[in-house]
Amino acid sequence: MRELDKKDRKLLYEVDLNARAGTSELGKRIGLSQEGAFYRLQRLEKRGIIAKYMILLNFAKLGYTGFGIYARFQNVTKEEKAKVIEELKVHHHIYWLAEFGGKFDVAFALMAKNVIHFNEMFTEIASKYVQVLKDLTVSIRVELVQFPREYLIKKETHPGKSPRFGGFIESEQLKKVDELLLKEIANNARLSVLELAKRVQKPASTVGGRLKQLETKGIIQGYSAQIRCQEFGYQSYQLFIKAHNLTKQNKRRLLAYCQAHANIIFYIETVGEWNFELIYEIESQKQLQDLIIELRTKFSDLIKDVESIVVFDHYVKYNQYPL
Fold first, then answer.
1. Which of 38, 155, 225, 288 could form a disulfide with 150 if both were Cys (CB 3.0 to 4.6 A apart)?
2. What is the CA radius of gyration of the chain?
3. Which pLDDT tens digit goes with each residue over 23-51?
């Protein structure tokens, strides 16, 4: 496995921050020509390090809540498991799908209008796979914060405003052109305004204006890259934290800690069997154990229990506008 050089790491960091940045802008930020940035970007894509470019959509603004489901496979062959994964990938309300190792084998998240809507979909899925999935555990996602991968540039704090998802449910009404745009850029956030205009058959000025509106309203929180850290020697882990003494102050402390940690890329507050989920990208099992010890020490008054699970593939599916 070839390690990333300094330019590649910086390029990954920048495109993760803003996947719609042009190659000329990216080149300036990392000290390369436009052609050099374009070549390196293509090389990272070919190596499988960058899987795709995506919008960061807060679907709570559109009236949806995220529900995580974690499960184990039972009595399945490799082929049967692959079939289940493929079927879950095409479900219209599943926006995230991942493969784990340990207590859970698979995890996915549904976007639902309300608990009744979720329960209908959950019951349908649980019934369909009753012979192959067991120990299904539900986690309601109250808030999710995504952080830039500061470890790529050896930086210890997350600057600026981080994309946030969840919060109070709103009911912003999308225009037809907005729906078309979101579908187009959901899995290809680097499409130019001109290309988007061709695809939705609208003037470029209209497309640019609608995107700006979606950003201003907080529906689009940003544009990022799906980066597979396993392809350059890192490993992803998900921590499940059960808490006591769950005060607003303690929540703010934990979030501030995550914001300042270079290796934490997701902070998720949940309601269910646990209270928080943290996702790390790190280089070794030893580093993971050190991080857990640090967490327990710093938050001894908050953390009741911590469980870690290896994430084999965090991005089997990640599409925040799968509708």
1. 155
2. 20
3. 999 999 999 999 999 999 999 999 999 99
